[in-house]
Specification:
Elements: E1 3-8, E2 11-16, E3 20-21, H1 29-33, H2 43-64, H3 77-102, H4 114-139, H5 146-183, E4 198-202, E5 208-213, E6 217-223, E7 226-233, E8 236-243, H6 246-252, E9 258-262, E10 265-268, E11 272-278, E12 281-286, E13 293-295
Antiparallel strand pairs: 1-2, 2-3, 4-5, 6-7, 6-10, 7-8, 9-10, 11-12, 12-13
Helix pairs in contact: 2-3, 3-4, 4-5
Amino acid sequence: MGFYKRLSGAGNRFFCGFGRPVLSCDMALAEILQAPYPLQKSARNLLFFSIGSGIFVAAFLIFFQPFGTREFDSDSKYLFLAGYGVIVSVCMAIFTFFMPRFFPRLMQESAWTVSKHILFLWLAFSFTIFICFGYKQWYFDQAINFRGFAGFLPLALSIAIFPITALVILDYIRKLRYYQQKAQNLSPGPVQKKRTQHIRLIDEYGKEAFRAAEEEIRYLSTADNYVEIHFIREEKPAKVLLRNSLKEIEKQLAGSSLKRCHRSFMANFNHIEKVSGNAQGYQLHLRDVSQTIPLSRSRSALLESVK
């Protein structure tokens, strides 16, 4: 059993268990690495991930005692090895909790992929290894030298690179299958014919900044301190920027077919053609719009409004 790759003429097919395909279709490894991957996770999941990483490292070191630690004899040996687990938990928490907040433009979920997540975890682990190296030098009362760290880093990375890569890819496959299957049950029914209603949107200064028929508007998205309105006029796509928050615009659109579907998007639910899924979650496909709009799992019940 386990995770392994089998080459075929059509590409790379991934198998798990007794050779059973994980995916129903061939997917090249390069395709998987460039596929969307969720960046934002709940605080609870991030906490479990950080603590779980530390427990795994501590257990691995205590039970297998690699890198000559088996020959190391001390009354505090196991406490010393468990200290590595604590360091790993703290360092991973720093990376997973705070890095997205310090570098929001660099770490945007809309552009986050499997390969970026793997690289992010490699960098996090390299940082953790550096702190662990300092911890070891401190424990043995030795000076920190970068030549010693350069020799320590490859050994530690050799343990982490394959598990990190394999776990991220397996997690991607699991999420992809889950959301694809669930999306099949979320497809909306026929569009409801409603009397044409005109929308007036007010900017943060209290002035009317946009007017359109409700049926013309496809979706709205956040753009820094603005809201970007995407609509169809004279059979051509168009967009305008309105200075206001999406939260305030959502209040103005209460009762309309334009609903908040994600923290950064509102969509016209009367123009949903289908719902699909990828590893990041559900995706709305709107009429006359090439871009897919994310639908938060917590808001999937909103699709009942268009049935």
